[in-house]
Amino acid sequence: MKSDIQIAQEAVMEPITQVAQRLGLDPDELELYGRYKAKLTSQCLERLKDEPDGKLILVTAINPTPAGEGKTTTTVGLGQAFGRLGKRAVIALREPSLGPCFGIKGGAAGGGYAQVVPMDDLNLHFTGDFHAITSANNLLAALLDNHIHQGNELQIDPRQVVWKRCEDMNDRALRNIVIGMGGKADGVVREDHFVITVASEIMAVLCLASDMEDLKERLSRIVVAYNYQGEPVTASQLKAVGAMAALLKDAMKPNLIQTLEHTPALVHGGPFANIAHGCNSLIATRTAMKLADYCITEAGFGADLGAEKFFDIKCRIGGLKPDAAVLVATIRALKYNGGVAKADLNRENLPALQAGIVNLEKHIENLQKYGVPVVVTLNSFVSDTPAEEAFVREFCQKKGCAFALSQVWEKGGEGGVELAEKLLETLETRESRFRLLYPDELGLKEKIRTVAREIYGAGSVSFSPAAEKQIRRLEELGYRSLPVCMAKNQYSLSDDPAKLGRPSGFELSVREVYVSAGAGFVVALTGTVMTMPGLSRTPAAYQIDVNDEGVITGLF
User: What does the pLDDT look like over 376-412, one tens digit per residue?
Assistant: First the structure.
């Protein structure tokens, strides 16, 4: 059996100009990065604003497990299936972070015969967007510390600096550090911190900005510290906005690549959903809707994180109204939620499936709260039995949502035709009545409680004394109307990753709350979730290599 990277490297790609031509794009509207990657020019994005919108389809999933779910694979395969049915579709995905690529999760190009290519380029440096975001983030950090060193005209309190440095790698040793060590010329000594680039507010700003003017306005609002009077100090006051925007000029433009079957894919931005807002850029999604009759996008991790943030943050800020949602599950993952060990998942086990399907049930109910039609798809494995498939199909029908099998990993677009046809039928027969979970005017604590109760199933929410104080301060500063971005572990509906299935009545613990004023949301850290992950005992980096011909191995 061929590996994902072997399949990708053996693919015969079309020149990206040819892919773009089928979308009605002129060669002058592309900035080429070799033969198979391109950015869309600012002039192209401006021209497309007057085009009508296609349908917006969100692909999400149950909570991730070691058994695998295949959300990106399903998204790519669904786009390829639309092409086989003669439908004009564009996929909108997030860019992979180097942290997972060298850690344990791997890349984000899909899998099997449902991948976006060039896979190795995408999973490594791609077009440099993450480097630009990292540089802009760290430029702001450097200007902040230089301001303090040069006399501190803004009276910044070094004990209340909230802006963190970042890098696109899992490095736990940088979570909590001390900077400015050495002599007087080496800066002011203070505690500092690093986050992974995908958790940087610059990433969120880029992914939620509508154009360069909006980008600069959002950058200007970023709160970097508080002064001795307790007042916020912004990036605008540090005179950092112009230089940061210059670094992000090209990163603002969506990247165009293709799938193994030459379906166009806009891959742009990449915040994680467990520690950030989990969606590709608003610009890329809007552009995909202008370029095609169907935009198929995804949100990170399970629907409790990615879909909730897609709806309550991205759709709220961008004015988007999704037409349908595809919810990905696997029989193996459902049995894992039912208490079966990973080694035993290949055996038929209907009692375990019945016990674990409550996780799928909760995600169906959550999506239905937003008023969007739901199609459940089983990402098929050879170990699945007809009895298990029939059980899930009947369960979904009783829950009022459509159902389809997906075999896109093995068969590419052909394996996604059943899902594509079921989705098209749903779009034609069921109208989306999209609504947000909570209104803007609700207080921050009540917004957090609403997500915890309605989406996670919590019985109550506890706030640390620090979080209580932070919320009061943020509301006094005028941030009450912002949506909340919940930073929570991805493996459970609760803040305890060991609680599988459908936990309920638990207490969700909020330990810290801070504002991402430029992005336009308030972040609530729950449980023990970290904004700078660490590497495992045997990281994926151990398996990655490149030979004398420049062929990379070990990526997945």
Answer: 999 999 899 999 999 999 999 999 999 999 999 999 9
Q: Where are the strands (E) in 251-302, listed by range?
A: 255-259, 264-267, 294-298
Length of the chain counted residue by residue: 556
Segment 467-523, tens digit of pLDDT: 999 999 999 999 999 999 999 999 999 999 999 999 999 999 999 999 999 999 999
Distances (CA, A) of 349 to 84, 334, 353, 384, 388: 35, 10, 6, 10, 8
Q: Are 225 and 192 in contact (CB under 8 A)?
A: no
8 Å CB contact between 234 and 224: yes
DSSP, collapsed to helix, strand or coil, labels residue 409 as helix
What's the Cα-to-Cα distance from 351 to each of 166, 334, 393, 403, rounded to whole Å? Answer: 46, 11, 16, 21
Taking Cα atoms as reference points, which of 19, 88, 78 lies closest to residue 54?
Answer: 88
Q: What angle do CA 493, 496, 501 make, to 5 degrees?
A: 45
**Token pair recorded at residue 483:** 């949506």
Residue whose C-alpha is closest to residue 296's, from 308, 312, 280: 280
Percent of the chain with pLDDT over 90: 94
- 3-state DSSP call for residue 334? helix
Handedness of CA 267, 252, 273, 82 (dihedral sign): negative
Whether the predicted pLDDT of 1 surpasses 80: no
> DSSP 3-state helix, strand, coil percentages of the chain (rounded to 5)?
40, 20, 40
Listing DSSP states for 353-395 in one string gives: HHHHHHHHHHHHHHHHHTT--EEEEEE--TT--HHHHHHHHHH
Mean pLDDT of 433-457: 98
d(CA 418, CA 219): 44
471 and 449 Cβ atoms separated by less than 8 Å: no
pLDDT at 556 over 90: no
Distant-in-sequence, close-in-space partners of 360: CB < 8 Å, separation ≥ 6: 62, 327, 329, 334, 376, 392, 395
User: Could you give phi then psi for residue 444, rounded to 5 degrees?
Assistant: -60, -45
Residue 108 has a pLDDT of: 83
- The three-class DSSP label of residue 208 is helix
Structure tokens at 101: 């690529």
Q: Concatenated DSSP letters for 416-451?
A: GHHHHHHHHHHHHH-------SS-TTS-HHHHHHHH
3-state DSSP call for residue 264?
Answer: strand
The pTM is what? 0.96
β pairing state of 294-298 and 89-93: parallel
- Measure the CA–CA gap between 142 and 136, rounded to whole angstroms: 10
DSSP 8-state assignment for residue 488: -
**Which residues are marked as active site?**
71, 73, 94, 105, 273, 301, 381, 409
Name the burial class of residue 527, with classes exposed (0-12), middle (13-18) and buried (19+) by CB atoms within 10 angstroms of its CB.
middle
Other Cβ atoms less than 10 A from the Cβ of 330: the count is 25
Task: Quote the CA–CA distance of 226 and 305 in Å, as a whole number.
Answer: 30
pLDDT in tens, 219-269: 999 999 999 999 999 999 999 999 999 999 999 999 999 999 999 999 999
